Amino acid sequence: MKLYHYWSSVCSQKVRLCLAEKNLEFASQHINLFDFEHWSPDYVKLNPKGVVPTLEDDGRIVIESNVILEYLEDRFPAVRLRPQDPYEQAMTRIWIYNSEEIAHHNVNTASHNPRHAVRHKAKHHTREEMQAIAARCPNPIIARRFLQRIEHGVSEDEENQAYAALDYLLEMMEGALAGTAWLAGNRYSLADIAMAPFINRIEVLKRPEMVSAARRPRIAQWWQHVQDRPAFKQAFSFANPDKSDPLQR
User: Fold this and answer.
1) pLDDT tens for residues 184-197?
2) Hey, what domains does the chain have and what are their CATH numbers?
3) 65-75 and 10-21 helices cross at what angle (nearest 10)?
């Protein structure tokens, strides 16, 4: 089994976390997003969307991080991460859905603040080079947004809206944890795996107050329990192999 991933990609982190929880070994192929390896012809043949992660298992390719989570659960059932109770299964699906529809979209926006332009400047790419790189992106909408964001980041209004949406999601999380230890019940599940990388990213973006014990005590306790798991330490210990990257975290 081989995983094509990027060290700090939230979608890569959730798949690495699932693999670690299931004690599954895999060959690691790091795809450097800041060298645009995800838009190389060879990688786009594997993943036509030109995104990470991509899982290769016995010659079969699986893309989309949440689909990969479900695939791993069905393919390797020895360690169960999907609840057996129908209601808890439904709650798991809701949090997997929320992780994509709310968390991913808005964390992506918040992550493209102006400090990330430093990464591209460190690579010494000219505007013309960036336009040529964007032309390799298989999705023209992403290519256009990419060019706008590497030059200007996101607007203050876009960033504020993203954090407002994340705040709304965190309030739902706090409520969901009112009567259970984990998001979908009293057992750790794919729901927790799907959401954990986004809480980590909120802290990386220097907004720890959003998940602090003072503001959201249930999330703070849940987050500590997530971080205490050996699989979390394994999945999140993957270091950036690109030592020229000025932002190592």
Assistant:
1) 999 999 999 999 99
2) 2-75 (3.40.30.10)
3) 10
